[in-house]
Fold each of these.
Amino acid sequence: MTAPGWRTLDARTLVLHCTWMGAPLGSLALTVLATGGRPGTRAWITLAVIGAVFAVLTTAGLVTWRRTRFRVTADSFELRTGLFTQSLRAIPLSRIRTVDVTASLAQRALGLAVLRAGTGGRSGRLALEALARPEAERLRAELLARAGARDADDPVLAVADPRWLRYAPLTFWVFGGVFVAGGTVWRVLDGIGVEPWRIGFVRHAFQEFGNSALWITVPLALLAVTALGVVGAVVLYAENWWKYRLEWDGSRTLRVRRGLFTTRSVSIERARLRGVTLCEPLLLRAGGGASVRAVAGGLGNREENRKRSVIMPPAPRAEALRVCAGLLGEDEAPTGGAGLTPHPRAALRRRIVRGLLWYVLPPAVALAVLGWLLTPVLLCCAAGYVLLAAPVACALARSAYRGLGHAVRGRHLVVRSGTLGRQTAVLDRRAVLAWTFTDNPFSRRAGVVTLTAAVAAGEEGYRVRDMAAADAAGFAESAAPGIVAEFLA
């Protein structure tokens, strides 16, 4: 089949577009419940606007379905769209680097999926909405096969383990997720004309909270938020990483499959893999866990890269290290802290000073000023805050200093930093394209400099923070020979 005919999207996409009307209908039901069956004029106007917008989007979706055609020829993947102005986009098969298949809950219920193929550049990306799931998988295999990704019996690197759920509460979303969800609901209610603070049970809860002893209600409120956060974090973890599987799909492609309601499949070409990042946030590190990100090109812009580069969820640190070693082709992951070059003591002093100046001093000064203007009680609060916050800031600064390190290990450059969000990046030394030396009057006085390795992948720049200025140029030359040699000469 050298030049097959044009193919169309699945007809079930028509039903999928109709499901978009569930949003205005759900908003109407929520408004009726919140107002006791008496929604106001503002609510009706808001719902009418939402309904009109969704009707326009649905009509546009129907037109898109009618006018979208695609085909795979001997040397390219082509997509034709447009009603009044037709466009034809094509990607050479030899340049295809990623082919991802995803499906939302509604798409899964209808047996549909979305296929996205890209070259790694920002413009070289085609998306097919609402293909039949078997057709999407066949097309994915066809594109990768035409691109040269031959099948191979490479091992499975990792699969989901239900015991990993215990790491879900050791993330930001334990607390942040509760406030994000609450703020979203509040804004939705306010947008449709419902005043949340006037809803019966909300008003009653605030009244009871204010009339009760705060030394009882505040801990209970924190406990309730923590409990909701833990449940939400576990549910979110399960939804994102259900049926997780990391494997080499062919001799040139790394594939990540995951998802409960929305299934996701991300492919990363082996040739574009530049390294890995071992992520150990404070709570997760305390629980003995870690997650893994791929440092790879062709994953889109910075926001898309942060979503698609996560190749392993929070899991036991030993498992994360094993996956890192497998991705790097090493017997043992070169991410261990032993053997990393420590940074000068000036780096510790800088972290202590920053912690005191940014996190201890401003709140203490604010409380002291308010105490001088309003009540002496706040002066006591300022003193108490300093006594409690200063040791915490110093402890975090010391932890951040102990987390600093860099080294050259074989064909890899290792960079580690951070305490609240510690990351250890292991980069292929051949991927380093340039070096940037950054300092300021304070760092020059301390004799330290921040060295940044520019890589055309991942975060694009990986910093060796506050290393000894006298060692920076020599280390850069040993890690990536030839870039700074002329300056050393």
Amino acid sequence: MMEHALSQGDIVVATLRKPEVLSDLAARYSADRLLILKVDVLKQEDIDEAFERTRSAFGRLDVVFVDAGYGVLTEVEGTPDDKAREVFETNFWGATNVGRAAVNFFREVNEPGKRGIILQVSSVTGYHASPGFGYYTASKHALEGFSDGLAKELPTPWNMNICIIEPGTFHINGHKGAVVLPQHADESFATSALRQTMEGAVLEGDPEKFTWIVYEVVQGGKISKGLPMGLDALEMMNLRIENLKATVDETNLGMVSGFGEN
């Protein structure tokens, strides 16, 4: 996403824990086009400093792309508390603290009426759980709830938008960074679905297409609250909708039948 924005002539502030990873880009772009900052989203002071340095360097900020996160793969029962909490510290608290700081920047620093956009990267698991990723899924559910709630709190005159991006499986390095913990000691308890997950899912999505579509959505100015990405994400969302509709229909039928009996 960063490289695509730079190729389109945009100014980028890149934040990451290991700035040296971008040394090649730092050599290709001047400081007035690319500002690279060391940020650990677990540290509020890092987040605050990044926004302050952005203000000092450029005086405004139009789009914040929040993609901090990682997964832990094992059964819920086999996940140690400290590992589960670490997932939430990054995927939920890290991401939401960036989002809160972005809203503050849009309101206090940008010119009145100038829009600001938060692209909050969630996951298809934010609405469709995957076995073996229980706490990762929970963190994305929480992130979606936070983003939805925050979006509803923003007054229309502020002209801010939050888009929750929900990717399916894509060919990215993030999958290599997932922490894999031992499976449940009782082999009879480990589900076949979890085994399939641990053997490796098919990564269907093209990250180049993902980048282009998200960029074009921003440029087009019509920011939807949700943006499922990938055929598998759309399939899972449709399945979720069907399940919810079935639940509603069954509940309505039960209520009508119950009232009729009374």
